[in-house]
Amino acid sequence: MRSFGFTLIELVITLSIVSILLGFGLPNLFGHIQNSRVKVATQNLFESLELTRSQAVFSNKRITIRKQVQWEEGWEVFIDANNDGLPNNNEQTVKKYEKLKGIRIIANRPVSNYVSFVGSGEGRYANGTSNAGAFQAGAFTVCPQTKGKGYELILARGGRVRTHEISAQDCAAI
């Protein structure tokens, strides 16, 4: 009577082929996951900046987006009723974003702690008074913690945000 199944040699050959294919495929899979994380983080920050600006225009109030400890630790969009750039207990939170894994967000000095928009849609520094404050423009660089390409978000003087891709070399230099 003939039994059905695999011989030991067939199993070893099959496992060898599978391990070779996984050896080539897994690094590419991890690269795709990393690229997706960077894109999602960039899109989240972009949408948060746009949300902050649109809320400021629609409500004709100062709305601020402020980092938690670092930008990659998350951020918060809130109605800045006292124009100081800091979330206080009596100020309403519009939206809060959680920590991003495997991502670095580097903000240049003008936007290192917060971005604040006034009713005209312009980015303006919060100065604690009802005056609009000096204009605020700057850039965010979103890169993976390991080697890979990233994106730069640029906040223009008028409050508009644009984005473009940067190379892995540019990310490594930061």
UniProtKB/TrEMBL annotation:
Any one Pfam family match given in the protein's UniProt record, by short name: GspH
Limits of the General secretion pathway GspH domain: 41-159
Membrane topology category: Single-pass membrane protein
Matching InterPro entries: N_methyl_site, Pilin-like, T2SS_GspH
Transmembrane stretches, start-end: 6-30
Compartments (UniProt record): Cell inner membrane
Assigned keywords, A-Z: Cell inner membrane, Cell membrane, Membrane, Methylation, Transmembrane, Transmembrane helix
Family: Belongs to the GSP H family.
Entry protein name: Type II secretion system protein H
